[in-house]
């Protein structure tokens, strides 16, 4: 088999890349180790930045997102017995976020690729990358795929990044002493907007997927087992962390999905080795508090598409050579924002000094227009040319 771009991973990064390349007349094959059903059901992100929405719209895959996604013009920070709205419409006029499940984006992209005659191979075992310096190829279950370049879009635990020889990558990382327990519940959201709640008991997040489905997260110890969290314990803890302002009652309903996610900050530089280009979680991870991971994946593949389009149209490798550096500008901004949101809102054991700093910073963000604007412009997403040199 031969293609122009061999793509490893059918997450948001790999699927969107394949579609954007197709729009530029560039051929690709996507190899995915899991089943179509599995990737379409995997519950993860929910917040799309303005720029992500624009990219999906412009690529002609935004129809259902426009119809079913929920545009939000603010979030609430809840702590110390009060709720404080961060109003995007005033602080970053014309910019908003859209709440639309990652698995819905994935479903839309798979449907579109298949309708356009694209090749996505699911349930593909034993993917291995070869000859990354020149004439690269991928092997899987006894087959061989030759390509001009390989896009490693296979997430944090994929094979692409570990295929790069030792000593090439520099890794920067930070672990956090907690995880997130996430649930989906069949109950209308208890508020119209997302609530990021900080309390002595730990962080909690009220989010949603639709007018009928709520999504919640709880800060929990890192080795948490779902077995220790029967429904009643989950609801009791959500109530304790969210029912902290007068007049707010948490609506409860059947829990239809639950998961535990580790919290990690991670960047591997550069995002390229020879003919292999890393994109999305394969190259960088942020803790989910800032809702940036999926959005960064979209920003990466947008740049990779432009670089490959220039290469195939003119033979120039200028944009391909600039790819890693350009992506990393945005990656590091999101790293900082996600680390900042995480340390601002979670509870750390045995750190009374840090606790006072958190409360002081929350008071600042909720009273200073300048500080609130910093949060708002990062949350809705900085422009795609952020950090670009003139
Ligand atoms: P993935 O989605 O991880 O896709 C990689 C794909 O590669 C997978 O389908 C995997 O099966 C496949 N793969 C792996 N190994 C192989 C192999 N060896 N061979 C072939 N295929 C392979 N981000 C946001 O922007 N907003 C949010 O609100 C948000 N909330 C989040 C909440 C939670 C609880 C979590 C866990 C994450 C959240 N994120 C959020 C992050 C977001 O989900 C990820 O950043 C995003 O999935 C990255 O997409 P990706 O395509 O790079 O990687
Ligand atoms: C969701 C996830 C996040 O990480 C976040 O910051 C906000 C919302 C969500 O899944 O809805």
From TrEMBL:
Xref: InterPro entries: FAD-bd, FAD/NAD-bd_sf, RIFMO-like
Please provide the record's keywords in A-Z order.
FAD, Flavoprotein
Please give the Pfam families that the UniProt record associates with this protein: FAD_binding_3
Q: Which residues form the FAD-binding domain?
A: 2-337
What is this protein's name? Answer: 4-hydroxybenzoate 3-monooxygenase
State the organism named in the record.
Streptosporangium longisporum
Coiled-coil positions are none
Q: Does the keyword Lipid metabolism apply?
A: no
Transmembrane stretches, by residue range?
Answer: none
Q: Which Gene3D superfamilies match?
A: D-Amino Acid Oxidase, subunit A, domain 2, FAD/NAD(P)-binding domain
């Amino acid at each position: 088999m031969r293609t122009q771009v061999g793509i490893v991973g059918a997450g948001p990064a790999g699927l969107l890349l394949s579609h954007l390349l197709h729009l530029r007349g560039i051929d690709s094959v996507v190899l995915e180790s899991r089943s179509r059903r599995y990737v379409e059901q995997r519950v993860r992100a929910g917040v799309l930045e303005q720029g992500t929405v624009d990219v999906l719209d412009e690529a002609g895959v935004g129809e259902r997102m426009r119809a079913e996604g929920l545009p939000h013009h603010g979030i609430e920070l809840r702590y110390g017995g009060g709720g404080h709205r961060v109003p995007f419409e005033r602080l970053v006029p014309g910019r908003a976020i859209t709440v639309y499940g990652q698995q819905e984006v994935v479903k839309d992209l798979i449907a579109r690729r298949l309708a356009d005659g694209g090749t996505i191979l699911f349930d593909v075992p034993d993917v291995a990358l070869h000859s990354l310096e020149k004439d690269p190829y991928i092997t899987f279950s006894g087959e061989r795929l030759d390509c001009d370049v390989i896009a490693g879009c296979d997430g944090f635990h994929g094979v692409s990044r570990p295929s790069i020889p030792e000593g090439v990558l520099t890794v920067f990382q930070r672990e956090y002493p907690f995880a997130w327990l996430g649930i989906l519940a069949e109950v209308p959201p208890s508020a119209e907007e997302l609530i990021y709640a900080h309390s002595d008991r730990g962080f909690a997040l009220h989010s949603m997927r639709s007018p009928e489905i709520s999504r919640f997260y709880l800060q929990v110890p890192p080795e948490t087992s779902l077995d220790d969290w029967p429904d009643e314990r989950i609801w009791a803890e959500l109530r304790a962390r969210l029912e902290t302002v007068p007049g707010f009652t948490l609506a409860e309903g059947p829990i239809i999905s639950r998961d535990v996610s580790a919290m990690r900050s991670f960047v591997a530089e550069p995002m390229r080795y020879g003919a292999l280009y890393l994109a999305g979680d394969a190259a960088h991870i942020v803790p989910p508090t800032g809702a940036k991971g999926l959005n960064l994946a979209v920003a990466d593949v947008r740049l990779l598409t432009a670089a490959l389009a220039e290469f195939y149209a003119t033979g120039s490798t200028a944009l391909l050579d600039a790819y890693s550096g350009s992506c990393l500008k945005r990656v590091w901004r999101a790293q900082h924002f996600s680390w900042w949101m995480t340390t601002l809102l979670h509870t750390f054991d045995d750190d009374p000094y840090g606790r006072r700093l958190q409360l002081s910073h929350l008071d600042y963000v909720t009273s200073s227009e300048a500080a609130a604007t910093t949060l708002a412009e990062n949350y809705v997403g900085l422009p795609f040319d952020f950090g670009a040199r003139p």
